[in-house]
Amino acid sequence: MKIAIGLGENKNVLKAIEQFPFEIEIARTNKELLDFLNNPEIDGVIRGSLESNIIMDLKKQYPNLFRASLLEKDGNKFLLAPVGIDEGDSIESKIMIIEKCAEAIKFMDEEPKIALISGGRKNDKGRSKKIDQSIADCETIVKKLKNRYNIKHYYILIEEAVKDHANIIIAPDGITGNIIFRSMVLVAGVKSNGALTLNQPTLFIDTSRSQSTQGYINSINLIKRMIEKTE
After folding, report:
1. What is the pTM of this model?
2. How many CA atoms lie within 13 A of 59 on its CB side?
3. Is it the case that residue 90 has pLDDT exceeding 70?
4. Which of 72, 106, 113, 114 is deepest in the core (most CB within 10 A)?
5. Do domains 1-65+200-231 and 69-194 have the same CATH topology?
């Protein structure tokens, strides 16, 4: 097993690497990390604490790439997507995100249980055009996918989706998803296992440059398990 991880200003990456008995390659620049990503001898790559513009470099190769953060609350794991601020801006892109997240959840030997989050409660319709559009988009997605997946529109009540153990939570858009991720992980201490980059062929896990040592350990463990499952 050969893994590579990026090292930027946050040196918690080095502390995380020390916890593993196998060698982990270190990339100190985005170019080095991309070289590892394109190296057939490397089984998986983690962004680590390098700058986020590496994702933009990846998107030049794979324009429909997006990220889904694997979070864990009280022992229950779920994918939160989209979390890239330029992702999930249309019904079509959200459907693609749902489909790819469902594939990932099945790979983890679970059946997808999908929660759609919108900008208000059901009775908030009419308060603003933005809220109305957010609710309408989720209603449209449910109609399109209800015969394929266990899917429910939770409106703005994300706490109910978590309580119901949904294993895929779809934010209204990438900006909101990013804020939800930061609120849960960096403020409230919800466990993060890293973000899977989906809709591209090479195994890659995105991580925050602000992550704790344990957060990077979680990401290394995740990519290790995924590599072992594909061997």
Report:
1. 0.83
2. 14
3. yes
4. 114
5. no
Mean pLDDT of all residues in the chain?
92
Distances (CA, A) of 58 to 8, 194, 195: 18, 17, 14
Residues counted in the chain: 231
Per CATH, the homologous superfamily of domain 1-65+200-231 is Response regulator (3.40.50.2300)
Gap between the Cα atoms of 184 and 196, Å rounded:
17
Instruction: Provide the residue ranges of all domains of the chain, joining segments of one domain with +.
Output: 1-65+200-231, 69-194
Q: Are 139 and 153 in contact (CB under 8 A)?
A: yes
5-9, 13-17, 69-73, 208-212: the lowest-pLDDT one? 208-212
Give the start-end residues of each E strand in the chain.
Answer: 3-6, 24-27, 44-46, 66-73, 76-81, 113-116, 150-153, 168-170, 191-198, 204-206
For 196-206, the pLDDT digits (tens) are 888 877 789 98
Q: Decide: 179 and 188 in contact? Cβ < 8 Å.
A: no
Tokens 């270190």, residue?
Answer: 26
Tell me the CATH class for 69-194. Answer: alpha beta
| Contact criterion met (CB below 8 Å) for 139 and 117 | no
Alpha carbons 181 and 37: distance in angstroms, whole number: 25
